[in-house]
Amino acid sequence: MKKRFRFLAILSILALFALAACGSDSGGSADGDSGGDSGKKESDIKFLSILTGGTQGTYYPLGGSFAEFITDETGIKTTAESSQASAANMTALADGTAEIAFVQTDIAYYANKGELMFEKDGAIDSVSAIGSLYPETIQLVTTEKSGIKTFDDLKGKKVSVGAPGSGTYANAEQLLEIHGLSIKDDIKAQNLDFGESQESLQSGQIDAAFITSGTPTGAVEALNAVAKVNIVPVEDDKADELIEKYPYYAKDTIEAGTYGLEEDVPTVSVGAMLVIQNDIPDDVVYDITKAIYENADKITHAKGALISAEKGLDGIGIPVHAGAQRYFDEVNGK
């Protein structure tokens, strides 16, 4: 009887060990299905947030369209949120505040290298590219009433240059530099967002404003509804000088008819792009990228016509997320 009891006890212990081993194997298999190195699984992603810019810019309406595409195509509830734009967006993604963001290509480059506005806190290496979108035109906006027609006319004037550390601020600083001017010494710099710049130009509280955004920009259209808008040109020789020193710029043109302009205005541009946290699984990023680029023809904003998979990797100076790279490789036949 004692032998039988001892035998049953041993069987029970062996059965417990077997159950524990099965549970351990099951957990290991689930981890093996995760994307990237983060341990996140595709099924873990229930919500996504896209940081855009101010509500009067171009990022915000496009972000709303992208959020809708991602939600419909992937089933992941995605929302677009207004923000302080490029530099702040890179920092927010690094801090885990959001997952996806709009950013200028030059600002993404500075963040990746830890330069300019990112020098103090160091390089951001936890964010990668989804893809490029369209040119971001640097617009020096004023009104006919101001009498400002050239960069030289800005001396002593109140000029909105965007928030310190923003993409607009960096563009303003570099363009002024090429024209022999300084933000600190030659103008009365005002740190306003696009909507505030429009209101201040309209009321006469400022004389001009730098706005880096895809055209047509909502804030400038709103200004044009109540005042005659002038865009100060960046002449060819100055554009060449700028590009030689800062090669991420390109020549651009604001076409006649935009904001009621009577003729084309030469200027320069950087690029707009989307970035994402590195630890979002590859399959999720592939689906996000596909949802955006294959629905670009549904975008009602004028910049939608410029968004295409064929140009999705143009001008990107930071690493591309593996999921996005796989999509572009497939559609572009690589």
UniProtKB/TrEMBL annotation:
SUPFAM superfamilies: Periplasmic binding protein-like II. It holds the Pfam family NMT1_3. Keywords: Receptor, Signal. It comes from the Bacteria. This is TRAP transporter TAXI family solute receptor. InterPro entries: TRAP_TAXI (IPR011852). Residues 1-20 form the signal peptide. PANTHER family: SLL1037 PROTEIN.
